[in-house]
Amino acid sequence: MNNKEKNDIISLLHELEKKKGFFKNVNQIDKYNIDAIIELIQYSNVKEYGDPLFSRREIRQGIKKYFTDESSFN
């Protein structure tokens, strides 16, 4: 995965949060809920774009980076 793909994933996560408040009630990402979150993101992408857009692995890495970056700003 290159930097452009990483940035696209982060952009998608920011868009989901901004438009839908996707992570509003998520207090913690852990091994128990990350798979469900990934499934929801892929389902949302298939519903909206007709394609999951990113692999589960790419989304997992994007979520980890998204929350790491967000926590460093708070």
Question: What does it look like?
Answer:
The chain is an all-alpha fold and 74 residues long. The protein has one domain. Helices cover 70% and strands 0% of the residues. It is built from three helices and no strands. It has helices spanning 3-20, 34-49, 56-73. α2 (34-49) packs across α3 (56-73). The protein is globular, with a radius of gyration of 12 Å.
Runs in which pLDDT lies below 50 for 5 or more consecutive residues are: none
How many strands appear in the DSSP assignment?
0
Q: Would you tell me the structural class of the helices and strands?
A: mainly alpha
Instruction: Estimate what percentage of residues fall within beta strands.
Output: under 5%
Order of helices and strands: HHH
Please give the largest β-sheet. none
Number of helices: 3
The number of distinct structural domains comes to: 1
Quaternary structure classification: single chain
Residue-averaged pLDDT, rounded? 85
**Nearest-angstrom radius of gyration?**
12 Å
Through-space gap between termini: 28 Å
Q: What is the percent of helical residues? A: over 70%
Which overall shape is indicated by the principal axes computed on the Cα atoms?
globular
